[in-house]
Amino acid sequence: MALDMTVQRAMALGRARDERMRAPAWAVLGLILLGLSAAAGSRISGAIADEEAFLTARPCVGTEAARGTEVCLRTIRATVLSAQNAKSGPKGASVFRIRLRAPVPTPADQPFNLDSNGDLAYLVKPGEEVEVTTRRGVQVSIRQDGVSETLPRLPDEATMYVGLTLVVVWTTAPAFIAAFGGARRARCHTSGRPVTPRVGFGWAKAPAVVIVPLAVSFLCLTLWDAWTAAAMTVVIWALIAFPATYAALRWDRDE
């Protein structure tokens, strides 16, 4: 019996030593995630301001159109060199690709990938003239005979930064909780007090930490303007994250 007690005591001290080693590692991970969340969060305000500046941009006047970094909307008239269906990206998505006849200023000298089923795909022919709108060196839209199509890569990712920030913020919380739990378990093993996890957090639940906030961000962006969407993303995600984090705090309660 005495030998069994000695073995159990040695095993408990070994588990306590392992927990003491894990706790600082979790704490360091939490600090790294906290820095990443601050970096992602710092982009939110700038992204929203850029989106609002784009939505309120006016046409360029005078010498503004001659600069490549203008915040106004620049209109370039050019002749179509080629217009044909093509494949784009690693997945080979079908697009209607337009190239303009040189010389044209940047970024109109780059090919334009339009919707292969859009109205312009049936209208634009080589040799015809089109109007290209650009802003800060980014292609915005193409227009011909009153028909226009807006291009991707516009500043509309403000709430995506919110979603990424929320992902990292909530993963930071479990990291610090795990650090706290490791230290607590080490003390319990040392003193002989048992500890039983009350709430599990398996790997199967981990994708929800990433998927839910990004999905909320996307849905909010389709319903509200940038600032409102960002605020509602935080509110909706908080309704999910706070109860889950509170539940995680129960992991290391004593029996």
What is this structure, in a nutshell?
This protein is α+β, with helices and mostly antiparallel strands and 255 residues long.
What class would the helix/strand composition place it in?
alpha+beta
Q: Which word captures the global form?
A: elongated
Low-confidence stretches: none
Q: In angstroms, what is the radius of gyration?
A: 28 Å
Mean pLDDT across every amino acid position: 77
Beta fraction of the residues? Answer: 15-25%
Q: Tally the helices: what do you get?
A: 5
Oligomeric assembly = single chain
Task: Give the tally of β-strands.
Answer: 6
Element order: H for helix, E for strand? HEEEHEEEHHH
**Sheet of most strands:** 6 strands, antiparallel
What is the helix content? 40-55%
Ends distance: 24 Å
Strand line-up in the sheet with most strands: 3-2-1-4-5-6
List the main descriptive attributes of the protein structure presented here.
255 residues, alpha+beta, 18% strand, elongated
Structure notes:
The chain is α+β, with helices and mostly antiparallel strands. The longest helix has 54 residues.
Task: Lay out the secondary structure.
Blueprint: H1 2-55, E1 74-88, E2 93-100, E3 112-115, H2 119-123, E4 129-135, E5 138-144, E6 147-150, H3 158-191, H4 206-223, H5 226-248
Antiparallel strand pairs: 1-2, 1-4, 2-3, 4-5, 5-6
